[in-house]
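Why run this: before we spend reagent on co-expression, it is cheaper to look at a predicted model of the complex and decide which construct boundaries make sense. The entries below are exactly what would go into the expression plan.
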Amino acid sequence: MTKSLRRSGKPLPLRRHLQEHTEPAAVHPLSSHLQDNVAALHAIYAEGSDVTFHAFQINQKIEAVLIFRSELCDTALLDRQILGPLITGIPDNLPLNADTLHRIVPVSSSKLVGTLTEASLNISSGHPILIVEGSSSALTFGLPKSEHRNVEEPTAESTLRGPREGFTESLTVNISLLRKRMKNPNFKMKSISIGQYTHTTVRLAYLEGVTDPAIVAEAMRRLSAIETDGILESEYIEEWISDQPKSPFPQMLSTERPDVVCANLLEGRFALLIDGTPFALVAPVTLFSMLQSPEDYYQHFMMSIFIRWLRYLFYFLSLVLPSAYVAITTYHQEMIPTVLLLSVAKAREEIPFPALIEALIMEIAFEALREAGVRLPKQVGAAVSIVGALIIGQAATTAGIVSAPMVIIVAITGIASFMIPRYSAGLASRLLRFPIMLLAGTLGLTGMMLGMMLIVIHLCGLRSFGVPYLSPVTPTSSSVWRDVFWRSPPGANRNQSSNHRSNRKPGMPIIARQANKR
Amino acid sequence: MIEKGKISLAQMNILIYPAILATSILSVPSITMAHAGHDMWFTPIWGALVGFLTVFIALGLNKLYPERTMIEASTAILGSVLGKIFGLFYMLYLPHLTGVIIRTYGEFIISNALPHTPMYAIMGTMVLVCAINVRSGLEVIARSGQIFVALFVILATFLLALLIGELHPAEFLPIGEKGLRPSIVGALAPAAWLTEFILIAFLLPFVHNRSKVVRKSIIAVLYVTLSMVVINVVCLLLMGDMTTSFAYPVMIAARYITIADFMQHLEAFVIAIWISGIFVKISVFLYVYSLTIAQWLGMKDYRPVVFPTAFLCTVFAYWIARGKSDISGIISASSNLYTLIALLILPSLLLAIGMMRQKISGQGKAAP
Amino acid sequence: MMAWIAGCRSCAAAWSNACLLRSAALALSFSLIAVLLAGCWDRTEINDLAIVLAAGIDSPGEGKDYLLSAQVFVPRQSSGGKAGGSSETTPGGVTVVKSATGSNLAEAMIRLQTKISRHVFWGHCETVVIGENAAKRGLRQYLDFLLRYAQFREHAYVYMSEPPAREILALLPPLERSSAEALREMGNLKLGAKVTILDLAKSIEGVGQSAVLSRLRILPPEQGRDKLATMPYMRGIALFRKDAYIRTVTEPISIGVLIMLNQLENYVFTVKLGDSKGFVAIKPLQIRTTMTPRIQKGVWSMHVQVETKGDIVLNTTDLALLAPDQVKAIERLWKEKMTGIIQASIDLAQKKLKTDFYGYAAAFRRHYPKQWNASRSRWESIYPDVETSLQVKVLIMRSGKSESPQGVPEDTIIRK
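The model came back. Tokens follow.
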């Protein structure tokens, strides 16, 4: 509880007051008297509420009240499919209670609820509620009207080749995007509602027989242990359920692309779809899966292998390049080829700062520019980048504040960090760059190595849902680890999962094998 | 059991590889040359025999008590009093050994990379990182070991490959200039290093797939020997008789590389190789020492003793020597006897007593 | 960073323990970082370095001080060199030479530092020039210093200079950035003997106890140019017995020395044909010298075999060079010429100087270790009497772009 409060960031007293106000409803079953129920619901939605209580008579005989939020449900359908038939067209011979109505109202998704909580929850979710005199259960209809975007091209993960569809904020749309791709009935989903106030629906999708059931169970356990006020984005969930939330390395993959989710499902991972955000979470992941792009499988395999290696190289560079520059120029000058050293010496001659400070200034400036560019509207963002490029690239060097080699280093580091296909995976290298720079500035390459060691130790201990983060490289899983360095041409490809399955014992998925391996 | 993590056989051998090579890569060429002269390049092959012996002792102990480390087995074999005394010897020996390793690291970094940095900063940072590694458990040690050993091997191979052009194959000759004796004396140093294979007696209880242990361990010894031979050969072919006059011949070799005036002065590579190797080595020995203490004291977990142990080893690293020349004295052949006693003779005595006891008790059981 | 990792670790431990542990780890790592940041003991910015490109060692004579000179790169001058024009009279001026004296090299080096406002950095010193007088005093001290002091490169080329080394370093060659670079490039082109510090030490400390170095002179500057605006060039080979300079040999014997050391490149042999007026110039493509020692019945002998292949680069005779006989004749003459040169150089080493420059001792040691060990102490007396048999094999591969001689009337060409 304390955690959820801290997370919400709202003042405490008000919160407690609200809870006291809402919680009693939880224990109340619905009574068979219509007026009691209406009064109870009136009490819940007493002030500042926009709930419509529409009283009417079924077949002009029995009192009934339809309760709904007009902005959340499709009122036109409500009038046509529920009010219309109920007022006029019910055969007289039937007993008019909720149970019967459930069967005869021409709405496909109707459901009986028995408690006030459920009733109010349904109202909040945009499901109209029908309470009938004499029935101790209420009837809900799935007639929500939600505003959502169309399916568009994902903006954060674009590919040259591959599907252009991206998730939207609507869970139903997202599920349909997945179901459209995955037609096997083994594609299962479990649902859970999280958040005391938001009641966000979270769907856990997995492939039965491919995903390790233990991992699915563990994920459900962690999801149900979440105690929070609200879930507004996938990151909320990620921080609650990752193995080590304090690690800068993401232990879940967030993606906007249904094809990525499907590919990961095929590899034995599970996905979390969260209502209200276009980002789905995928777990368990490894460092290497975070560095793979969906496009690796959409283009010729030779190109993919080349790009993959390039990406590993640049991921490494984005972490250590500024540090290496600092370490080599201030501690190991003999390593620089003579001619290069002479030109660096010339370039650095007028620079007032030590290399470490210079690197820190430039890296922080670069990060600031990058953040500014992301947050600003597109038109202004372009202006910012021009100003940034001019100031950093041109003016600072001519003014003799930073040296030209440093600008090159920062630029390469910047490009390197943009090469990482997953935004969240790049965060770790962006953050850890600074402590390594400090270490390199104090102990040279030795310090850099020490920093790398700490990172490796951390990564070696890290697990994502029980799967070691560095697998399949270490612990080694020889049947899978080729995919880390190699993208095999068809026949041994991951998406030909039959290939994997042939040497997989039933119920023993790929990921599980990695998890058990030490 | 104190350690809950399990490692694979391959991981254990990968841990032992740099635990032996990391320090030997630097000093073995000049030490062996001092004794064996021109024949130094095949001295590790004699050393390998001692390596095999050590492996068999370690495996024998493990066969007697498959789930116990040597320290635990000692109390079972020798009885609690004698066994504790046996353990006490290792409690005193291991910090000494670890201290020497840490000090070697410090001396190397000071003389090659950071001459003005105080020793405590160099050794302290390294030991701290290793202690963090050890605290994370054997699984993490094994995994980080795998990564750094891969780095170690790749960089070392790269380095040696770059040197091929500078080698003079004629330096191989003469072989056996003064008979085989010098080469056998010279083999004492690689042999002392290869006795560190006794680590198997400490690590094997945590290995989960032990079916091929004999074969794999022999292969591990061969790999280590081969690596030593390759390093010795490269030093010999590059520097000839001068190898012995340098403190760190491999370092000189790396400095000598010049490819197209661009790849030059690659000693930072050696430093990277060395650091990644020594990181694994210090971690392994620190782990073994912490485990020994915890088992000797009968503790449930070794983690609480890791930082104190690390500190103790660092202090030992200060105590054992005044300077580089003292360190050279410690790792030179004359004092290798000390290592041999601790890592070969005592374990073999333990094994012999254990086997005799087993035989006696076996007969005792069979008789009634 | 460390705090963060340590933090993560301690999380793994039990919760009750974690708080205490984490604060301890935090305190520890913060104090460590503080100590480290306060340190930066070895940090040297490039701006604070005086990058030495070449070192020169001189000595006015026995018993006197040594003079250590350093060619220091000056970054500022060269960066402002945009205004051309004046470079005609004064050369680029990217280096300055600073020297200091001392009773030994280490002392001279410390004194040199006192004369320079920046940290003198020898890590890029790729050329070492030893003055003739300094060389006469023996190389031992220089070698020990160069191989002991951490910054020096073992791969640096060593030369001996006829003028004082300081003067060589002071040159500002118009073509290269510095005379150090010029010497380095010349070494790479193998214009003379290419000897690194390590090679030099190896050959002096080896069983042969001798060494050779290229000898440098200064090319006279062109008229009207600054007298520094010129290049050093290699002329002759300096020979060292043990570590002391004994004498210089010049062409053609120096060529023989280089052949014996397997180091000759970039040379043209001129062969004069007896009956015709002209000559033929042959550029050897590769020269391979192998030495085979032999001890038979107590007689030590050495078989030297030189194999070479060459192209004809100039032909002023009237021979068409097509007929096998003509080529044979030229080959024979070439062979005679080479044999003469090489034999002279062997005689010089064996008979006159009685110093094993060519690695006889090493070869005997390799192939006859037992005999070698037995007579190791007597080597100096054995060496002059080692019977050397020389065999030269030559082969003319090609005759260049032309076959028959150019610039002569067709009729005068001798086809057969």
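DSSP finds 20 helices and twelve strands in chain A. Chain A has four domains: 2-141, 171-285, 297-467, 471-516. Bring this page to Monday's planning discussion.
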